[in-house]
Amino acid sequence: MTDAPVTSAPADAASDIPRNPPQRSLTLHRALARVWANDRGLWGQITAVSHTTLGLRFMATALVFFAIGGILSMLIRAQLATPQGAFLDTELYNQIFTMHGSIMMFLFAIPMLEGLGIWLLPKMLGTRDMAFPRLTALGYWCYLFGGLIMLSALLFGVAPRDGWFMYTPLSDATHSPGINADVWLLGVTFVEISAIAAAVEITVTILRQRAPGMKLTAMPLFGWYMLGTSVMMLVGFPPLIAGSVLLEIERAFDWPFFDPARGGDPLLWQHLFWLFGHPEVYIIFLPAAGVMSMMIPILSRTTILGYGAIVAAVLGLVFLSFGLWVHHMFTVGIPHMALAFFSAASVLVAVPTAVQVFAWIGTMWKGRPQLVLPMYHILGFFLTFVMGGLTGVMLAIVPFNWQAHDTAFVTAHLHYVLIGGFVFPMMAAATYWMPLITGKRRIDGLGEAAFWVILIGFHGTFFIMHLTGLLGMPRRIDVYPDNPEWIWLNLTSSIFGFVLTIGFAMFALDLILQATLGKRAARDPWEAPTLDWAMPVPAPNYNFASLPLPEQAACGAAQAALTLARGEGVLPGAPRGRREVLVSTVSGARPLHVAVLPGNTALPLALSASIGGFVLLMLAGLYALAGAALVPVAVLIWVWARGMAPSGDMAQVQAAPGLRLPVHFRAGVTLGQSGLVAFLVANGTLFASLLFGLAFLEVVTPGPAAPSASVEHLTMGWAMGFVVATAGLGVLAARASGSGAALAGLLVNLLALAGVLWIGAQLDDPTRHARDALRAVVAGYVGLHLLVAAGMAGFVLDQLRRGEITPDTPGAAPAWRLWQEFTAVTTLITALVILVQAGVV
Amino acid sequence: MKRFAAYPLLVAGCSGPLSTLEPGGPAAADIAWLWWGMLAGAAVITVFMVGLVLLALGAPRPVREGRWTLGLGLGLSMVILTPVLAAGLWVGERIIPRDDGVVTVEAHAWQWNWRFTHADAEGAPVESENTLHIPAGQPVDVLITSEDVIHSFWVPRLAGKLDAIPGRTNRARIMADEPGRYAGLCAEFCGQGHARMRFDVVAHADWPPVLNGDGTEAK
């Protein structure tokens, strides 16, 4: 047979794809289950890469952290129940409230939404797994290890204690000696590897793996919400990562980024933190709003009202959420007219939120809402979230914020928003999807009781806390001996806080009982039209025996489940004994090629463990050893990339009658390349955050000006010109083909790296002034990228030597080209910025 | 106590030495009015929204999409939010410091105390720890600085808070209508001693006050 690559599928539109002939469902199921199953036993848990396994594991782990964070909150409430609480000493109290906030944000909310997206998206979009299964597993292990490091610190009494937003100088080496702050900076950054990984693969999965013919403009709203979320994560997390890296470098090596005595600025930390921190609120809210947009119409027996308006609202939220971080900084002394802009943006963000809320209520008017348990939690959401949104508008009003900021009023507001806007929807979602997770039916009664206890406990705790704040009680105090007027308020909050905890325990018990004692659930218990129910319960690892065509998806989950199980959809079964998914065009979901996904492997565990070794050595202050620990990390990344080399059966795949598709080794833009683009978006934002820091220190910071550079501008200019030119030559090499070009690419990148190292040696002592320190970091950023570019050129050279790269199979060459171009551009920008700053240009 | 008397709504539950709802000066009073107005609006909106949700629990009704998404979602929310934003900006402009040569005092924070400085009759600086002396009945600007970490200067009955940030000087305007003692505190978490980082503002009818060596007022 001929193996010529086909660049476009024969069918012009997915609706033209004919059905496959029906087969025996059981035969298909057995073949697929064998190929997609986890390995047996404990080893199988270590090597699992399945999105179903890992999505559930993310969510289950997040629930454990939620319970731990909840216990910490009970300790806080016990301490505050009386004005002279002697229950905790101040040091321990500070650790506990810092850990409560950090756990709930970084170890509960974000992993929970990642797990939800990872578990649900492939099912809802009609594919068999996420785009990068090994990356899913890597993210999980980084989350688990980072979380365990932070928890161990709590057990050993060295947990972070500077508040969950870690303001400097309180968190710097002078004012926070010991490893407490390092635990936060390194631990959270370690955990955030999972956020970036999840954001990359969620973006790519939504854009390129939807069922054939599922247009972007017609995908389930949850897809739009998660797309908005993942884009926000790609752009929102890098400022936090940049800030954490800078602060850790300041603590470890005394580089004064945030030290006002040496030209640094504590406000730079606040800007970087809230550039992440405010989008973060919407990163948490959007997935919750996404499941609401799915459940409300289904449980109201109707269709969603205002699909287009909701999509517009999501896009509006994504855009606006990056323009209002300063409302966390209204009291730092920014001029009132500047605050007015951020106040207006903060008020304006209520509008797209209102559009969604009214669309949901309108949907309920249109249909006949059924008072089933998920609907209870949806009603709890409406009540709680509306009130949280209204106090949010109040806090966006500058003068009121000046009074309420940093008081219990804000504590009340953020719990209304996060529990109302995230926890209630998640409880609705849990009760809604439990049959698909466990294959079991709920036991009536306990869940309803849990809902009422939670609702009463929540509002009893937090409603009066608004008043506590207006009566002047600041956040984060452990005693208030001089304020008897706060006693009854705090005692009431504490008592209801325990009620709330009992409610959550009942909710957890209900889930456990359902999973263990529940009767077998029927398929599609809610009579849903969406693909997530078009499969057996509990969901099999492969989701679909064949991938749904538009006409199959349109006839309801129950009907679709039958034809899909019989293999009448696209790409039925696993006849080639490997994990195959369909990759399609972004907007119209026209099938392009078949991606062969990796199978079970322990590599993600090994890689995250080696990163964990680096983190632990950094925590121990063994910086030289930590540097050496990066060697195994690099080796494992090489091994990881080797796993993507073209191999196996390269023949075209018959996906449907008349639809022959190439495998991804021979295809145009692969999932991997799309993923690299998404990663470079995050990487570019990281770079932009560093440049923002340089500009901020130059323009805004009032501290002492940087001493003039001791090296001649001219020499430095030539050196930078050399680095830019060699990085540019690297682009030419990456665009050419053949071993000679790859070898040249390797050499010019190494030359450029040598140039950067020479410049680094000439740069002024980075401990002298914040600008010098930040410059050295930017130079390090460029150097790291050149090093990676050299590695990629070497990798391509190796692939050429092995004969893996042919005219038909590009191997890693496109990835190298993309990276080299990114590196050349950032190198050029860095050189220009430094020359402009030095007054040369 | 004239501003206090202006709140018929005020019940005993809203008063206290640190209560923003028992204002002792114009800035705090403006913000308190802003709060009561927003609270009333928020209460009406909450009832309206809960009512809409409860009404939805009945039989299906014909709905027009534009009425919900554009009418209520976009239209109603803009109609409500615009005046709230305008009121906030108007109040903000009224209460911020301006260049009008008012009495200026200094507040310097460190872990975990305050050192305040005002000028005596000869213009010489007078320092006091944890007690800030100001004239009553006239606006006063406070120049706020910090020695070590970020603190925040807050006298809830007089005005909103403003941070004390190392490397920066921030200017806050406060005013006490009546002579008396007003409680203040550090509002930004600043470490071990944060909860006890309190101070007092004493507003004097006669300015500058005659103080004893220990900073107390000479009678």
UniProtKB/TrEMBL annotation, chain A:
Q: What would be an example GO MF term here?
A: cytochrome-c oxidase activity
Report residue spans for region: Disordered: 1-22
User: Where would you find this protein in the cell?
Assistant: Cell membrane
Q: Which UniProt keywords apply?
A: Cell membrane, Copper, Electron transport, Heme, Iron, Membrane, Metal-binding, Respiratory chain, Translocase, Transmembrane, Transmembrane helix, Transport
* Domain of life (superkingdom): Bacteria
UniProt keyword Nucleotide-binding, yes or no: no
The annotated pathway is:
Energy metabolism; oxidative phosphorylation
Report which reactions are catalysed by this protein.
4 Fe(II)-[cytochrome c] + O2 + 8 H(+)(in) = 4 Fe(III)-[cytochrome c] + 2 H2O + 4 H(+)(out)
Q: What InterPro entries is this protein classified in? A: Cyt_c_oxase-like_su1_dom, Cyt_c_oxase-like_su1_sf, Cyt_C_Oxase_1, Cyt_c_Oxase_su1_BS, Cyt_c_oxidase_su1_bac
Domain Cytochrome oxidase subunit I profile, by residue range, is: 37-551
Q: How does it sit in the membrane?
A: Multi-pass membrane protein
Q: Supply the Gene3D superfamilies for this chain.
A: Cytochrome c oxidase-like, subunit I domain
Q: Which Pfam families match?
A: COX1 (PF00115)
What PROSITE patterns does the record point to?
COX1 (PS50855), COX1_CUB (PS00077)
**What cellular component GO annotations does this protein have?**
plasma membrane
List residues traversing the bilayer. Answer: 54-76, 96-120, 140-159, 179-200, 221-247, 267-292, 304-326, 338-361, 373-402, 414-437, 449-467, 487-513, 594-616, 622-641, 676-696, 716-734, 741-761, 773-797, 818-840
Q: Look up the EC number in the record and give it.
A: 7.1.1.9
Q: Which GO terms describe its biological process?
A: electron transport coupled proton transport; oxidative phosphorylation; respiratory electron transport chain
Similarity section: Belongs to the heme-copper respiratory oxidase family.
Q: PANTHER family from the entry?
A: CYTOCHROME BO(3) UBIQUINOL OXIDASE SUBUNIT 1, CYTOCHROME C OXIDASE SUBUNIT 1
Identify this protein by name: cytochrome-c oxidase
Q: Coding gene? A: ctaD
From TrEMBL, chain B:
Name the domain of life this protein comes from. Bacteria
* GO MF annotation list: copper ion binding; cytochrome-c oxidase activity
GO biological process annotations for this chain's record?
ATP synthesis coupled electron transport
Quote a single Gene Ontology cellular component term: membrane
Q: Mainly resides where?
A: membrane
Q: Which reaction does it catalyse?
A: 4 Fe(II)-[cytochrome c] + O2 + 8 H(+)(in) = 4 Fe(III)-[cytochrome c] + 2 H2O + 4 H(+)(out)
The Cytochrome oxidase subunit II copper A binding domain is annotated at 100-216
Cell compartments where the protein resides: Membrane
Q: Which InterPro entries match?
A: CcO_II, CcO_II-like_C, Copper_CuA, Cupredoxin
Record field: transmembrane: 33-57, 69-91
What are the UniProt keywords, alphabetically? Copper, Electron transport, Membrane, Metal-binding, Transmembrane, Transmembrane helix, Transport
What does the similarity note say?
A: Belongs to the cytochrome c oxidase subunit 2 family.
What name does this protein carry? Cytochrome c oxidase subunit II
What is the organism lineage in this UniProt record?
Bacteria, Pseudomonadati, Pseudomonadota, Alphaproteobacteria, Rhodobacterales
